[in-house]
Every structure is written in C-alpha cells, then in structure tokens.
Amino acid sequence: MKHGIKALFITLALMSAGMSHCALAATPAAKTQVAQGKSDAPPPPQQSKAAEAEKGRISINSAPAEELARVMNGVGLKKAQAIVSYREEYGPFKTLDDLKQVPGMGGALVERNLAYLTL
C-alpha cells in the first residue's frame, strides 16, 4: 500500500514538472508572434456597446431575441423570442429570477446564464 501511494506521488510530480516545462517552452514562441503582430487566435467577437459596458453581460429588458440567443447558454432563437414576448406582454423584468416565469425557462437554465445577464 505504501509503495502504491509513493508511486502515485512520484508520477504526479513528474507529470506536473513536465507540464510546467512544456508551458515554459511555448512562452518564447508566443512572445515572438505577439511582437511581430502575428496571432493564431481569432479576433474577439463583436459585441454591442451595451454588452461591452457591462463586461459581456446583456440586458434581458432591452436585448433583441437574436442577441439573447447568441449569448445565453442553452437558449436558442425560439426561447429567446419567448423572453422578448414575455417582457412585451408583462413589462420589464424586475429581477433576473423573474426569467423563470417565461415558458420553457427552468430554474437550472436561468442559473446557468446569470453570469451573462443583467437588467
């Protein structure tokens, strides 16, 4: 039993040392690309000015259905249109939890998207 635990710790130490070495080895190449203005990373996605102002959050009281569907995880255009229809019929949302009143929006779905939403 002691040998198994010791072997496990040795394996973990070697793996973490290898990962650190790989990360350090990749750093100069990344710095060179940045210095030369080259990057393999895609450009950041375009966001509306309101979303940028809220650091990536969108307003459930003013965003169009297309933007809600794009930003919210697990929400397609149909559910996003239901959100817009609900707010047009009942007025603006007073809290983010009011989103649970929209047909098709369960508690788990609302909780999953709280980081992306604002009033």
UniProtKB/TrEMBL annotation:
Region feature (Disordered): 32-57
Sequence ranges assigned to domain Helix-hairpin-helix DNA-binding motif class in this UniProt record: 67-86, 97-116
Keyword match Signal: yes
SUPFAM superfamilies: RuvA domain 2-like (SSF47781)
Residues annotated as signal peptide: 1-25
SMART domains given in the database record: HhH1
Pfam families for the chain: HHH_3
Source domain of life: Bacteria
Keyword line: Signal
Name of the molecule in the record: Helix-hairpin-helix domain-containing protein
PANTHER family: ENDONUCLEASE/EXONUCLEASE/PHOSPHATASE FAMILY DOMAIN-CONTAINING PROTEIN 1 (PTHR21180), ENDONUCLEASE_EXONUCLEASE_PHOSPHATASE FAMILY DOMAIN-CONTAINING PROTEIN 1 (PTHR21180:SF32)
UniProt entry tagged with the keyword Lyase: no
